[in-house]
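Sanity check. The docking grid for magnesium ion depends on where the pocket ends up, so I'm generating a full predicted complex first rather than guessing from homology. Inputs follow.
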Amino acid sequence: MIQTVDLCKSFGNLVIFKNINITVQKGECVAVIGPSGTGKSVLFRTIAMLEKPDSGQVFINGTDITRKDININKVREKLGMVYQGFHLFSHLNVIDNITLAPIKVSIMKKQEAQKKAMELLSMVGLTEKASAFPHQLSGGQQQRVAIARSLAMDPDIILFDEPTSALDPSMTGEVLAIIRKLARSGLTMMISTHEMSFAQDVANRVLYIDEKGVYEQGTAHEIFQNPQREKTRMFIRKLKVFSYSITSRGFDMVAMNVQIELFCQKYNIDSRKINHIQLVLEELILEVSGEAEGKQQLKIDFTIEHSEEKGEILITFCYEGEFQNPFEHEEEGDNLGMVLITGVAKNFSHKYEDGRNTININI
Amino acid sequence: MEFLESIVNSFNSNLILNNGWLVVLKGLWVTILITAFGLLFGTITGAILCFLRLSATGLLRIVAKTVIAFLRGSPVLLLLMVFYYVVFANSRIDAVYIAVIAFSLNSGAHIAEIMRSALSAVDKKQLEAARMLGFTKYRAFMAITLPQAGRIARPVYQNATINLLQWTSVVGYVTITDLTRTVNNIGARTGDPFFALFFGILIYLGISYLVNFLFTLKIRNREAL
Ligand SMILES: Nc1ncnc2c1ncn2[C@@H]1O[C@H](COP(=O)(O)OP(=O)(O)OP(=O)(O)O)[C@@H](O)[C@H]1O
Ligand SMILES: [Mg+2]
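Predicted complex below; grid placement will be based on this.
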């Protein structure tokens, strides 16, 4: 069990958080979300006493570990941490990474430790990598080894600090699957993550951190589908909506397409549909920037939103300038791009207001 | 043929006559002694200076920084002469010991910097990961940071050793008869400096190779562990 009581932390004049009171019951999995730089990592590090709190207490399994007479090393044997950057011991191979602490800290026999390490490796699906070195593994594999390393000490609690943020989307799945397994097995854990569907799946509760504290908390459904407070709403909307601005004709379309693809992959949108989305946007951008050529500064903003209920993609495409509706073209058949768009879109509309064209397309 | 003959002649006059090779061996011994102890005490001095340089106390850091800068900035020969002609001028300490002190200090300053940069190149988060597994600060350092820093430092440390070996050739200035001084003396005596000096260079080369070989041995051992 983890409990913090009026926990405060600042660096010099910079207050990171004030009076944080969190309780994580035994066997509970709590997800922590919040914008970058709001102190999620610092909170985790303070709970592990890697940072000294300014005031307040941290209770681990009922013991106040901020007390001076506490042997923090003993506490940490049962309190694991998994980092965003893995941080495997780079001079040791996989099996030695896992057995080092059991052998040196809990004084386990080498053979016994290795047997246990192999069991853990098979749990994370990496038995054949036992003698590989960290630099020979992919990010996802390194993170799985890091989880096994942490589990080797039989911890009661593990803190996962953005365990998948440094990974390719193609590798987050393998790591999340293991964390999911651990959550089901009743390990107590806190995990900071931006993977909404994952948090919805495993987290008993979600804490939104902002304004130097726990700004809002609730079940995953409450926080992600129906956030109550202003900042939470904005944050969740940003997570769900992809937005992009174009201000010059020389913008990097390849980079844009990559970002669109990454966003869509988070929602398991199939690659055919992703292609359609990219096609529609490319054609719209070409159309609008072509028409506006030389007339004025280009200014395009668009958002892509995934509606889970309907299984649809909503694209909102705005551009400034004169009235210009690409769907109403005089010369018929001339405009292949628009034909393509109307072909893949379920419905589409255009409106013009205050010098701003807005196109809505559902795919 | 003539060339070969002249070499054989030089060899005889320089090394065989008057037991020249024994003298060379004695000089070599002195060189090795100064290098080996210079390296040993230099490493100890380096570790201490590095420890102070990284300490949490500001004053100690400044002191260590100043000492390192001073020692690295002053030519080792001048340092040696200061010790010989000034500091230990009136003592009866053998010049070889004085040389060991001077070279220990000089190489210690270099080694302190080698250690410091190697330590700072190690991923600190790995140390923290070890702490999170229950390691004490000291044991985490010994198990994680030190072996990794050792690997990073090894090639530079090896260079420092060879540098030290070559710089010991100046100890003749304070009356020590080391390898360089010996071959110089022999060359002057036989009037054939080319052969004697060149032979000296070959011996230095040989020791350098030996040093490099010893370093690779150490690595193999470690990999076998
Ligand atoms: N050791 C430190 N000294 C000074 N400031 C620090 C230190 N560690 C973190 N900070 C500051 O604390 C703030 C919170 O950082 P933190 O890494 O906890 O954010 P985060 O919520 O984890 O963000 P992200 O989602 O990017 O990981 C940042 O402004 C950071 O600059
Ligand atoms: Mg963070």
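Relevant for the grid: The pocket of adenosine-5'-triphosphate (ligand 1) is lined by residues A 11, 16, 34, 36-42, 162 (CB under 6 Å).
Also worth noting: The interface with chain B takes residues 48, 50, 73-74, 76-77, 79-81, 83, 85, 87-91, 100-101, 104-106, 146, 149-150, 153 of chain A (CB under 8 Å).
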